[in-house]
TrEMBL record:
Binding site for uracil: 210, 215-217
Gene Ontology terms: cellular component: cytoplasm
Pathway participation: Pyrimidine metabolism; UMP biosynthesis via salvage pathway; UMP from uracil: step 1/1
Entry protein name: Uracil phosphoribosyltransferase
UniProt cross-references to PANTHER family, sorted A to Z: ADENINE PHOSPHORIBOSYLTRANSFERASE (PTHR32315), URACIL PHOSPHORIBOSYLTRANSFERASE, CHLOROPLASTIC (PTHR32315:SF4)
Cofactor info, note text: Binds 1 Mg(2+) ion per subunit. The magnesium is bound as Mg-PRPP.
Primary role: Catalyzes the conversion of uracil and 5-phospho-alpha-D-ribose 1-diphosphate (PRPP) to UMP and diphosphate.
InterPro entries: PRTase-like, PRTase_dom, Upp_B, UPRT, UPRTase/APRTase
Regulation: Allosterically activated by GTP.
Gene3D superfamilies from the UniProt entry: 3.40.50.2020
EC code(s) of this entry: 2.4.2.9
Keywords assigned: Allosteric enzyme, Glycosyltransferase, GTP-binding, Magnesium, Nucleotide-binding, Transferase
Gene: upp
Amino acid sequence: MTVSPKSAASAAGKEGGGIEIIAHPLVQHKLSWLRDRTLPRADFRKVVRELSLLLAYEATRDLPLRPQELVMPDGTHLQVEQLEGRSLCVIPILRAGLGLLEGMLDLVPSACVGHVGVQRDHDTLEARVYYFNVPAHLAERRCVVLDPMLATGHSALAVLDRLKKAGAQKIVFVCLVAAPEGVHALREAHPDVRIITSALDEGLDRRGYIVPGLGDAGDRLFGT
Ligand SMILES: O=P(O)(O)OC[C@H]1O[C@H](OP(=O)(O)OP(=O)(O)O)[C@H](O)[C@@H]1O
Ligand SMILES: O=c1cc[nH]c(=O)[nH]1
Ligand SMILES: [Mg+2]
């Protein structure tokens, strides 16, 4: 059976209901490789990392700048713009979110990293937070939450709830593939959170996996 993800051409680049689908040809090309079940693990990891760098660029496009004066090599003073405020906080959702971390740090090396461990119950599809460790001063930081897959949205919701309780105010959620069900759940509960993705797929199967999706992203990244 052939399934055409509506993400690739038709939905790419459109912003609907607060979701930003990145239409950049490099993003769409790399995502297409991840759909191929024969892609070896090392390549899967590498492409996920490359995609995260491209999506990081989008996630940071509205970071605030402040004027700063510096001295040029010839001694003249120049007014420039530099990032304002505390460094950004990147929060991968364990495990699969770890696959997106390095690309994000390639672009923003000074970022702090918080870790949130979430396990989705295979039967109920409910999410359980088993680890939560985030930097101080979250209220003053842009928080970028990473998870390749937004399926039912239960895992993302659990993380966003905990982050907001810990003080986070400005949050961006970055994923590779989103299902409409997960997007809807996030928009309802957290309309202030930007969702950035490379694809909005058709829906979920009976096991809560995204169709067409990528399969189990964590298993493909880590070989379990
Ligand atoms: O939107 P949801 O329905 O909650 O599903 C998405 C979650 O499921 C996967 O994680 P999983 O629980 O399989 O853990 P893993 O990262 O360890 O593979 C994925 O990485 C998301 O975190
Ligand atoms: O499609 C899905 C859904 C949840 N987790 C995954 O890894 N893939
Ligand atoms: Mg998994």
